[in-house]
């Protein structure tokens, strides 16, 4: 099925191709034939013929939809909630979408993978949704902990006002399990110091360079040694943190990598 830039059948407006099992997030369904949708696998939005899409297991809540992100290799879909070479039943790549069905386990969540048309367990450290929460503390910092309790010995990181986290588990009344992109760590934080939620999304921006490329860097500075990737004009990034006046921390879906870029070359 074609993803199109306009609400019409035309070879010239085709901007992507969708296969059976691909997942889309419909954002506008006013037209009788062509609905506007976002395609996580392609990281693109456009129009598609509504007659060729269907609701999968009534998974209409956006919080049920999570995206795979691995720095290299693949994320295994498993038949049991454990790491074992013999229980691998499928492979998921960065950008693939899964629907979370059971998140009761601390590590392995039960999901449905539309692209594979299979259900199984995946390591929840490698799936993310778009909901972001922002840290807000009057003074000091918010501790990231390895246990859902206040204890000086379980502190594994420090978060400041303005830092963002992705919430993974809200079952505890006080301590929520989160992933912290800038620390690349998961742990527990006191939810009373978080603001935002599912309405706060990761803003997408486009690279704009007149010539050459935009460097993705491991640190907030211009240095040949900290360059970890190259971004071209038109590439898309998701801004995670933008407190610095020059270098913003971003995620690059195409590469499955995070790092710093000069904000002056984003639009």
Counted up, domains total 4
Shape: globular
CATH topology of the largest domain: SH3 type barrels
Strand order of the largest sheet: 11-10-9-6-12
Tell me about this structure.
This protein is mainly beta. The protein folds into 4 domains: 2-52, SH3 type barrels, CATH 2.30.30; 62-127, SH3 type barrels (Roll); 132-197, SH3 Domains (SH3 type barrels); 204-265, Roll (SH3 type barrels), CATH 2.30.30. 0% of the residues lie in helices and 45% in strands. The protein has no helices and 25 strands. It has strands at residues 2-4, 14-17, 25-28, 34-39, 44-49, 65-68, 75-78, 88-92, 97-102, 108-113, 118-123, 127-128, 132-135, 142-145, 155-159, 164-169, 175-180, 185-190, 194-197, 204-206, 214-217, 227-231, 236-241, 247-252, 257-262. The strands form 8 sheets. A 5-stranded antiparallel sheet has the order 11-10-9-6-12, with no helix packed on it. Strands 18-17-16-13-19 form a 5-stranded antiparallel sheet, with no helix packed on it. A hairpin with a 5-residue loop joins strand 3 (25-28) and strand 4. It is globular.
Helices and strands in order, then pairings?
Blueprint (H helix, E strand, L loop, with lengths): L1 E3 L9 E4 L7 E4 L5 E6 L4 E6 L15 E4 L6 E4 L9 E5 L4 E6 L5 E6 L4 E6 L3 E2 L3 E4 L6 E4 L9 E5 L4 E6 L5 E6 L4 E6 L3 E4 L6 E3 L7 E4 L9 E5 L4 E6 L5 E6 L4 E6 L5
GO cellular component, one term: cytoplasm
InterPro entries: NADPH_Oxidase/PX-Domain, SH3-like_bac-type, SH3-like_dom_sf
Protein name: SH3b domain-containing protein
């Amino acid at each position: 099925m074609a993803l199109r830039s306009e609400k019409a059948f035309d070879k010239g407006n085709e901007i992507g191709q969708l296969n059976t099992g691909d997942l889309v997030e419909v954002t506008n369904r006013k037209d009788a034939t062509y609905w506007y949708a976002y395609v996580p696998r392609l990281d693109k939005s456009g129009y598609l013929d509504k007659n060729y899409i269907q609701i999968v297991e009534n998974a209409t809540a956006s919080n049920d939809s999570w995206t795979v992100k691995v720095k290299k290799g693949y994320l295994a879909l498993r038949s049991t909630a454990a790491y074992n070479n013999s229980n691998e039943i499928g492979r998921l790549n960065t950008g693939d979408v899964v629907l979370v069905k059971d998140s009761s386990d601390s590590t392995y969540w039960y999901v449905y993978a539309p692209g594979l048309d299979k259900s199984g367990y995946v390591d929840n450290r490698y799936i993310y949704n778009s909901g972001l929460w922002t840290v807000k503390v009057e003074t000091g910092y918010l501790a990231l902990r390895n246990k859902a309790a206040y204890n000086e010995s379980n502190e594994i990181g420090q978060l400041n006002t303005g830092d963002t986290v992705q919430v993974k588990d809200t079952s505890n009344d006080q301590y929520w399990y989160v992933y912290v992109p800038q620390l690349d760590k998961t742990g527990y934080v006191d939810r009373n110091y978080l603001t935002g939620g599912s309405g706060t999304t990761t803003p997408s921006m486009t690279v704009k360079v007149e010539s050459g490329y935009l460097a993705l860097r491991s640190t907030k500075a211009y240095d040949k040694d900290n360059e970890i990737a190259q971004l071209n004009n038109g590439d898309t990034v998701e801004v995670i943190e933008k407190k610095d006046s020059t270098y913003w921390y971003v995620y690059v879906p195409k590469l499955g990598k995070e790092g710093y870029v000069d904000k002056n070359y984003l639009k």
